[in-house]
Amino acid sequence: MTKLNTELSMYLSKDDINNRLEEMANQLSEKYCDECPVIIGILNGSFVFMADLIRKIDFECEIDFMKVNSYVGKETSGKVQLEKDININIENRRVIIVEDIIDSGLTMDYLHKHISAYNPKDITIVTLLSKNNSYTLNFNIDIVGFKITSEFVVGYGLDLDHRFRQLDSLYTLEPNILA
Ligand code: IMP
Ligand code: MG
Known about the structure:
The chain is α/β, with parallel strands linked by helices and 179 residues long. It is 21% helix and 35% strand.
């Protein structure tokens, strides 16, 4: 155990994550067989999840990224800022959005509106984690890796102020660094 990990409690191990990703990838592979969707990863948080997920699917795809930001520390600022848009033309294409975590739903609501405005054929939403917040969205979240309680989690791409993204499992923070 490294010094870094002593501040953290294991929440979902890399094996738990890997097993669930196999199932999620199979679900996607059944849905897309011989089509070529555009998979849009939402930076920064989804980069590890996205990299692992796309290497488990068995259909051809194109990859792009969007970058949005709404968090300051552990709290949402209530406003979503677009920092990088997609570059691929997705008009009349099938699109898969890959997100790390949905909490209040604010970010996904923004992403869905923004991507819908490009008139894709359809949109499938995949998120590794969904907090059991009662967010109300007027579209479905199609594939959820894990439903979790509302604790703040880090690792496997998720951060607290840019830290902990490189950890290969998901962790909750110990109270001493929650302050
Ligand atoms: P929402 O807009 O409230 O749904 O929050 C979604 C975004 O907030 C995600 O894309 C994450 O970047 C970030 N976020 C929410 N909860 C957590 C967490 O527990 N750990 C790390 N990032 C989080
Ligand atoms: Mg994010």
